[in-house]
Amino acid sequence: MADDLHFSAYDAWVEKEGLPVYTGWGIHPPDLKLAHWDRKGVDAAFLHLEAMGDHCNDIVMEIAPGASTKAVRQMFEEIVYVLSGRGATTVSVKGGGNQTFEWQAGSLFAVPMNSLHQHFNGSGDEAVRLLTVSNLPLMMNMFHNEDFVWNNPYEFGDRLGDTGFFQGEGKMHEVREGRTWWETNLLADADHFELRPWKDRGAGGINLQFNLSNSTMHTHISEFPTGTYKKAHGHGPGAHIILLSGTGYSVCWPDEKNWRGNGNGYEDRELVPWEKGSIFVPMGYHQHFNTGADPARYLAIGFGGMRYHVGGGAIGNREAADAMDKSVKDGGIQIEYQDENPNVLETFEAECAKHGGTSQMREYLKQFRSVA
Length: 372
What we know:
Mean pLDDT: 94
CATH topology of the largest domain: Jelly Rolls
Oligomer: single chain
């Protein structure tokens, strides 16, 4: 029998690193057990979610009280959300000197690609837990050379941005509703950063797009009120969604384009519960539901964004960006409320009852369709 010549440099590297690998549609990183990762000198684990795709992965790292990671370079882009604890990061790039910035639980920042950097726990009695999304799988498989990815001396001076970007300052780029984006390197408090209305996505939702450390990674934060759900839309795998607040669930089902199902359409759905600190990756058609007492806010990260569009199956390609709030009937990827499956509302009301929430959607939907 002929040898199987298919090879994933990323999968081979993950196996060699020897860390736990967690799988599934959704995961709650604050609860995970980690193991020592010699490469960075801290405990860590890989997350390989069901719809992660080929571009990005997730890593959970924990820094012990008073400790730090090793200083490393990495030829890939990485966005970091602070799940718990407080500390600081030092970044060094030729021509930019050393930049040190502080962070806390709820902070979001990006490490400029291949900069020498090191994370420090600022507490003597509390561990820090970080959740990162990076395009390491893409880069490792593209170059299939570990030394190039981890020991490359090239420095990207253009990734530092303006003075103050590591202190939370930034620039707002006004485009249009749902496309406006904030350019910076650090959000000191992503959990409460001011967002903008986005009426076309439904149910009083607000949103803002971000470009962090001049990367090709897509980032946005969305929030929607208690007792409501957003319109469904469809795209391929690779949008890593981290819950910043709220309790609820998301539903994913085949769109027969990016995800070929069993021919049952919405009946083939997967229901993914979530809470603050959870992460999941949707695929095909998907829809987000808030069953709790507080607004649901989530962070979405993937490959390609508002500044740098990339092609292929990436979330941030121009086609997806143009179509994300346009009806499928008009060539977009969004299912309008009047076109959704009637079971969506019934399931939502049942889930609200289970979790003590109160649905606001029956009355709201009357402007779009007949609701009993």
